[in-house]
Amino acid sequence: MKLRNWLTLGGIALGSVGVASAINSFLPHPFVTDPLYERQSESVSLAATLPDIDIAFLRCGSVTVPECLAVRGSFSLTARTIAYSAVLVKHPQGTFLYDTGLCADIPLFLMDQSLIFSNTLGRFHMERPLCQHLENLHMEPGDLDFVLLSHLHWDHVAGIPDLPGVPLQLNRVEYDFATQGLLEKNQGLVRRLLSNNPVKLLDFAGPAYEGFRCSHDVFGDGSIILVPLPGHTPGQLGMFINRAYGPRVFLVGDAAWISDNYMVPATMHPILWSMVTSDDATAQQTLIDLHHFAHRHPEVAIIGMHDAQMQEAFMTTERKRPRAQIV
Ligand SMILES: [Zn+2]
């Protein structure tokens, strides 16, 4: 055969492999979720007296993606909204945020980023910066006792410049990991966003909790329990909120983008997944753990920090929930 024919044949073969792997990337990727392999866990008995806790999602920005990108194996092109939010939690012993949404100056922080970054992860529609949310709630940054960071990706620390001096708390494992490169990535974006706020590192010395291997009880009263959700980043932390009135809530950082990710379970599209995931196998195991927990506890609101639909639905019921009677 002539060289030209060989080249044509090679081109066709390579093209076919490319098309096949592109199609494959949208097909379902089955997980082993057999109950036989479920981690043994005893259901937690909640404290007899729990405090009344207020929860509010403060949405700062959003972007829409077709569902087939958010959930591998979905062939739907329906637009799903990915939110950039902070969560305001008012506990009798302290008022704090879980993650921080976006600060007013975030466009300035992102100005020097690469074209690829600006057109992928850095592309969003600004809605209301964190400082404006606080103003609308008649709050000053100083009214916050601390901020809990689920993990150190830029989009979870991007509200900190609106919170000068507010102490930050995060998993020691996450901070140690970040010092090995994440802080300096993208022209030091995360380091710059962390500003000069004081940092307190948390160790998860508490017992296994709801199938998660260790825990940290923030106020020592069984109401705010942190658990590790590794994989997306090594030290990502999830937060249970157990309270006197209203449903139990489990905030899961970026362990799942939207609820389908743990209900099916399914990762997002593999290209996106590999862009944002630090350890593929561990992140998949965390999704499986969330899947089992969600099926054991359908009464718990399990909400990812980008899941606009769940956050809106939660806020609708939260506004109507009964509260402690003030006498
Ligand atoms: Zn994120």
UniProtKB/TrEMBL annotation:
<protein>
    <submittedName>
        <fullName>MBL fold metallo-hydrolase</fullName>
    </submittedName>
</protein>
<dbReference type="Pfam" id="PF00753">
    <property type="entry name" value="Lactamase_B"/>
</dbReference>
<keyword id="KW-0479">Metal-binding</keyword>
<comment type="similarity">
    <text>Belongs to the metallo-beta-lactamase superfamily.</text>
</comment>
<dbReference type="InterPro" id="IPR051013">
    <property type="entry name" value="MBL_superfamily_lactonases"/>
</dbReference>
<feature type="domain" description="Metallo-beta-lactamase">
    <location>
        <begin position="83"/>
        <end position="295"/>
    </location>
</feature>
<dbReference type="InterPro" id="IPR036866">
    <property type="entry name" value="RibonucZ/Hydroxyglut_hydro"/>
</dbReference>
<keyword id="KW-0862">Zinc</keyword>
<dbReference type="InterPro" id="IPR001279">
    <property type="entry name" value="Metallo-B-lactamas"/>
</dbReference>
<keyword id="KW-0378">Hydrolase</keyword>
